[in-house]
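If I may wish for something, please walk me through the protein I am sending here so I can picture the backbone:
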Amino acid sequence: MSMEKLDEATTKSVDGPPAQRWLALALMVGGWALYGATMAPGLLFGDSGELQFALPIGGLIHPTGYPLFGALGWLWTQATPWWPEPATRVNAFSVLWGGVALGLFFLVTQHLLLRVLPTQSTGSRWLCGVFATLLLAVSPTWWSQAVIAEVYTFNAVLMLAVLYLVLRWAAAQRADRATAGRWLNATGVMFGLSLTHHQTTVLLAPAVMLFMLRVQPAIALLLRRLTILLLCASLPLLLYLTIPWRAQFTPYARVELSNGHALQLYESGLSGFMQWTTGVRFAGALRTPEAALAQLPQALTWAREQFGAAGLALAALGVLHLLLRQRRGMLTLTGAALLGLLAFNLFYGIGDIAVLYIPVYLVLGIWLAIGLAALVQTGARLARGQIGRLPLIVPAVLLVWPLAWLVWRFPLLDLSQQNKAAVWWEQILSQPIPANAILVSNDRDEMTPLWYYQLVRGQHQDLTGLFPQIMPGSGFSDVARVVESALSLGDGRPVVLIKPMPGLDVKFDLTATGQVVRVNGPAVTRTPERPLDLGLGDALRLIGYGADPNNQLRPGGALVVTLYWQPQQKLDADFTGFVQLLAASGDKVAQGNDHPAGGAYYPTSLWRPGELLRDVFTVTLPSSLQPGAYTILAGMYRTHEVTGAVQEMAPPLTLGKIGMLPDVARPATDPERPLNVELGDRILLLGYSLRRSDTALEVILQWHATRYVDTDYTVFVHLLDRRGNIVAQHDGEPAEGLASTSIWVPGQAIRDEHRLLLPSDMAPGTYTLVCGMYDQTTRERLIITDGPVSQQGESLFLQEVTFLARRE
């Protein structure tokens, strides 16, 4: 076929026969039927939830603003009253554009197929286009976005419209038709409208310009065409000027926390306008080149999930056909578009990046249609007419493929019974939430339904919802900062977490009340029970610890140990904390529940230097635990993601001792002789009991710690003659060393028995019985710090004991 005839045929194909347009309409209606049947019925989380309250009230949409979508969406919600719930109307808005996109996609494939394979029969070309359209229609990412309130089906319509119009311009330009200028103007306007919706459309600009260069190689004329294109594209951008105007009437543009504090989500003025419309806040999500390249396998996996390996093979065949047939213009347009879109997605590291690949899938779908058409035509040529209907039979049979996927994926992607957001929030709002509370989530997506209740339904307007990144700045960088800001700026307003967030208890005192959690204030408000000042490397300091006195050591029991940390510098990783219990021999006898410090919601990588944090461990004790003193060891480590190797932050810290008292150290009765004399400001002698015989004195002391004791003191009980000489004595740690003073718990009574053997040549007379404590290392005695005036110094007077002459 000559180039003249080809251009003439191509030009005619732009409009196509009426049957082609009816087929496009049928695909559009089929899309509406499929997506309408599987559409989410109401309220949703995330961006969908935001659109569901922003469109009905004509409010702001998150950066970059989406002014065209917002305006059309508002009109749609006002014009569709047959859906009583505005959220449903916004979901249906995506269904509308999902169907339109399918029809437009089919028309684009028809134009390209006629240009690339001009000898293909009309029926075969239609069937190849229908096959590619249906495969796109049931691809999981596309389908999932066509049944919820989202921006991506409308974005696909605009991108396809740009491609369609630039192809019509090219066809008119090649045919030397006067209408080429109008198609160029329309292309520019549509490109500008696309930019007022999703600015990733700018990635099509290089592809369009390179394609125009192929069609119009004369540079001077090309520059003129590009100038016209840019002027036409700039006019729709004036829609962005509606954003400051709409901000004035958007309730959530300013979030009131208290009379003196409010969050200005949209800043008036040129700076605020530029920040909102350019989306500079997302610049931090860009990856390094190395990290971007590492995303390629994931991108390939996602593409395979859309079309299958066979579908990607057909797309590759389409690219090969464009190369071999030297269809450089079409390859330039589609290839440059795909490369630009793919490169951006590889570098852009946001959580929902998967849906931004939809424009890439549109190009792959176009290549797939070309590949199938080339395969069919090649097969027909090889068959040499022996199978005359082969170009029709093959694509017709292949229609079973998308139909099978439709049946398989329907139950997976059917959201018609999906009401999780409404059910979840109804449960939250039925909880005992105080009036005028500030509700906090770690996830903005979870909070959007509350704003729908407030802005669309007019309910629960006394509540305020906050989440990380609600506005730029360190005060809202993570959920802990959000809670901190709510406590400090809320002027006493109750602060409530909408769900349990394990790990936040390292920073805040929390009380669960049903499904929600009340924030009472900081977790650390007083000096730890056992103050310390120990460094775990350079990054952390342990300022103290505590062991719940109600959970003391007992065989088979549990011990609760609380560590109090203060970061000294920013930590570069998420560490796991541990607590161990060591016997006197150094052997480990028990280990706490190792867990990531701060859990998932406030891991160590988010800890800030200077803040006070607490971490609680439960140590399960063995049933074979024996009485005595044990050492508490604590530290942190991290596990290598690849090798699994454990790396300690620093050598573990020795905190102190805790013990299990033997039965002999547990008093069964009160002392016979009360005293209440204090030694060293921390140990109280409650009293004692005395048993005597001809050969020994048994002194049963009863001690009581008023504070924790860090030293293991030795108890002395001495019998003195009138000159102060020791006649009999017993020195030793309480309960024969099984109840050393370092394991005493304040308020706990200790029975301490000492047996003094009397010398056989002991003279009759009156002797003085005294006791006290001293440090075995320094030999320094504890002085009496409180008690009767008669009790002073380093020895505590018990009583005088008279001995008569022994009978022979």
About this structure: The longest strand covers residues 628-639. The chain has a mean pLDDT of 90.
